[in-house]
């Protein structure tokens, strides 16, 4: 009898917990993270001379090209874009950096851009935990800097943001490549 009551109570509690979960469908634009130095968590785990903290990381969602014309159509020229899909892309610096000649204090920022055919205006903004560029507020901008667009011969299917060996933040999608030069403090 006690066992039946206990099992009933456990089932009741389990139903209450699982009844509150909201399981969503897999996202079409999965979340990804890139670090500088590249693969920082793996280096740290493998104890392969990883620094105590990374220099930077970017968290973003990765939409696909899917045979679409991306720039000028899906991503409109002259409009603020979140650099990816879903939540706005977030860039975190673990030390002070310099971008476009301007000092940026270590911390977490939202990364937006205004794409054009020949150049993009890259934007660091203090508004965090946002979806898309719907709640973008220019008055929260920390930095705006223009970077040139390079056209590539082979298109990239999945929107990608990576740091190169120097720490430059590189954005690749469709046949477009853009690099945001970042100068890190010497430590």
Q: How many domain regions?
A: 1
Instruction: Give me the secondary-structure category.
Output: mainly beta
Strand content: 35-45%
| Gross geometry | globular
Number of helices in the DSSP assignment = 2
Give the % helix.
10-25%
**Could you tell me the mean pLDDT?**
87
Question: How would you characterize the overall build of this protein?
Answer:
With 187 residues, the protein is mainly β. The protein has one domain. The chain has two helices and ten strands; from the N terminus they run αβαβββββββββ. The strands form two sheets. It has a seven-stranded antiparallel β-sheet with strand order 1-2-3-6-7-8-9, with no helix packed on it. β8 and β9 form a beta hairpin. The chain is globular and about 45 Å long. The protein starts with a helix and ends with a strand.
In short:
The protein is mainly beta and 187 residues long. It is built from two helices and ten strands; from the N terminus they run αβαβββββββββ. The longest helix has 18 residues, at 2-19.
Key words describing this protein structure:
mainly beta, 2 helices, 41% strand, 13% helix, 187 residues, seven-stranded antiparallel sheet
């Amino acid at each position: 009898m006690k066992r039946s009551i206990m099992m009933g109570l456990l089932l009741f509690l389990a139903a209450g917990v699982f009844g509150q979960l909201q399981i969503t469908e897999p996202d079409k634009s999965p979340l990804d993270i890139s670090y500088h130095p590249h693969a920082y968590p793996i280096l740290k785990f493998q104890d392969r001379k990883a620094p105590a903290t990374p220099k930077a990381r970017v968290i973003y969602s990765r939409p696909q090209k899917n045979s679409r014309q991306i720039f000028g159509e899906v991503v409109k020229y002259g409009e603020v874009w979140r650099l990816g899909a879903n939540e706005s892309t977030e860039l975190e610096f673990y030390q002070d950096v310099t971008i476009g000649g301007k000092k940026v204090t270590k911390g977490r920022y939202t990364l937006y851009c205004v794409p054009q055919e020949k150049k993009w205006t890259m934007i660091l903004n203090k508004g965090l935990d946002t979806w898309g560029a719907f709640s973008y507020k220019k008055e929260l901008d920390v930095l705006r800097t223009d970077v040139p667009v390079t056209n590539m011969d082979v298109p990239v299917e999945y929107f990608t943001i990576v740091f190169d060996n120097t720490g430059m933040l590189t954005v690749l999608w469709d046949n477009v490549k853009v690099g945001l030069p970042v100068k890190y403090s010497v430590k």
